[in-house]
Amino acid sequence: MAMGKILSSGPILLFLLYLVALVSLPADAAVKRYQFDVQVKNVSRLCHAKPIVTVNGMFPGPTIYARDGDRVVINVTNYAQYNMSIHWHGLKQLRNGWADGPAYITQCPIQNGHSYTYDFNVTGQRGTLWWHAHIFWLRATVYGAIAIMPKQGTPFPFPQPYRETNIVLGEWWNNDVEEVVKQGNKLGLPPNTSDAHTINGKPGPLFPCSEKHTFAMEVEQGKTYLLRIINAALNDELFFAVAGHNMTVVEIDAVYTKPFTTQAILIAPGQTTNVLVQANQAPGRYFMAARPFMDAPLTVDNKTATAILQYKGIPNTILPILPKLPLPNDTAFALSYSAKLRSLNSPLYAANVPLKVDRRLFYTIGLGINPCPTCLNGTRLTASLNNITFVMPHIGLLQAHYFNIKGVYTADFPDRPPQPFNYTGAPLTANLGTTSGTRLSKIAFNSTVELVLQDTNLLTVESHPFHLHGYNFFVVGTGIGNFDPAKDPAKFNLVDPPERNTVGVPTGGWTAIRFRADNPGVWFMHCHLELHTGWGLKTAFVVENGKGPDQSILPPPKDLPPC
């Protein structure tokens, strides 16, 4: 009888459960599903055709659209000859490192003919991020934008734009990028620089055979446009400007900023910048242009990529005007531009800067030279943090941590360099050997961390954009020369510092960042210049589990690729 009662009330019970589920789900949460087929396609640029790795045959790849609060499910199927993994750059992946994507850090790569589903929630983030391959140099062509809208009914904290456009900056090599890199590694030298920069995959009319490889956006007089600018280049920090038009910076790395107006922006590999542009000039055609910033004595691809901002009704026969970009070595512009970046820090978008620091880290960034009998000069160029060149493991570090697999890594990465020296004095050209190892730093859950990244003149000073996975951080200070722990912290901005996921360490200088380690897992931290990452300029943090029920790493998905 009791059983009969339960059965007869079954539909009512189910309905009640359904109502409870409805109430507990945020009103605007949705599941956004994407299928990414990694496939090789023949593409032609600069009068050269070559096969490139793409997603869904698109270059750049498809844009992912989501809202704050959505669940995003992306099934990646690999039809290319290379192993593949994809990183969702800037998404925090709370307790869910399995969806982060860097090969051999949080997963083994997806092999040819296999699939893996990246399943993650977008929590408390809105703005422009991006995705890219995170293995070898395949991100040269495997990349795309992520546009996250605020929750339904939440306006932007700036005037609503009429339309928005993605501006994804990249690099193009005429030859097979993986072959170019292999050649460089064989010689122990940097590979050849790229042959062009691109805007949305197109180099623009300053390059040969590029009439049809030019991106153009049409604007209407008096309207305001939001440009979502992403630097997907492998090795170049870039200046970007629109001829005749000012830009108002309103967001960096998917965090709102105090708006400011500028004629040009500086954007490092891995970074994003949202700007508002008003179509308030004489109707015509205006070039948008991107060109590298390099204030160290190093070779870069110094060519200018262009796209066209075209007022409605203006014929294509009108020649566009070029913008005035800062000079390639304009350090003063770079520093003054970076100094203008401030978090919005409004009641709705507070900058929760850690004021008390539990753990202070000081990492030196260095280039080095190690012996290599088969290389051109008997030596190989390398890179290190605290004189340690990171060695990639053969299984994912997150698996090793989660399943307690011994012998994959050691948790003894030093908090400071082995010996202090005059980091940014005259170039150091002797004793440039580094030690190698898969050494990680263990961080207690919910502790506050201050990390000072110090450039050095080992071989040469250079600007380095550093990216931390799994977190945003606050850029509380930066300076030229050696960091002074006695004097410099007094100048830190602890009120409204910029909050980012990728920060440029200035040439011959330092940058201080702070974050709260509230996301358990293994989180990669590396230079976003692909050249330096390949040379070992990387490490990872093991953030321990907390004691609470929702303070531990989630279990791995069933389809996690095998090693």
UniProtKB/TrEMBL annotation:
Catalytic activity: 4 hydroquinone + O2 = 4 benzosemiquinone + 2 H2O
Domain of life: Eukaryota
Span of domain Plastocyanin-like: 38-152, 164-313, 412-546
Keyword Oxidoreductase: yes
InterPro entries per the UniProt record, alphabetical: Cu-oxidase-like_N, Cu-oxidase_2nd, Cu-oxidase_C, Cu-oxidase_fam, Cu_oxidase_CS, Cu_oxidase_Cu_BS, Cupredoxin, CuRO_1_LCC
Cofactor or coenzyme needed: Cu cation
Signal peptide: 1-29
Cellular localization per UniProt: Secreted, Extracellular space, Apoplast
Keyword entries, A-Z: Apoplast, Copper, Glycoprotein, Lignin degradation, Metal-binding, Oxidoreductase, Repeat, Secreted, Signal
Manner of cofactor binding, per the entry note: Binds 4 Cu cations per monomer.
PROSITE patterns listed in its UniProt record: MULTICOPPER_OXIDASE1, MULTICOPPER_OXIDASE2
Family: Belongs to the multicopper oxidase family.
Function: Lignin degradation and detoxification of lignin-derived products.
Cross-referenced PANTHER family: LACCASE-2, MULTI-COPPER OXIDASE
NCBIfam families, per database record: laccase
Protein name: Laccase
Native organism: Gossypium hirsutum (Upland cotton)
Gene: LOC121225606
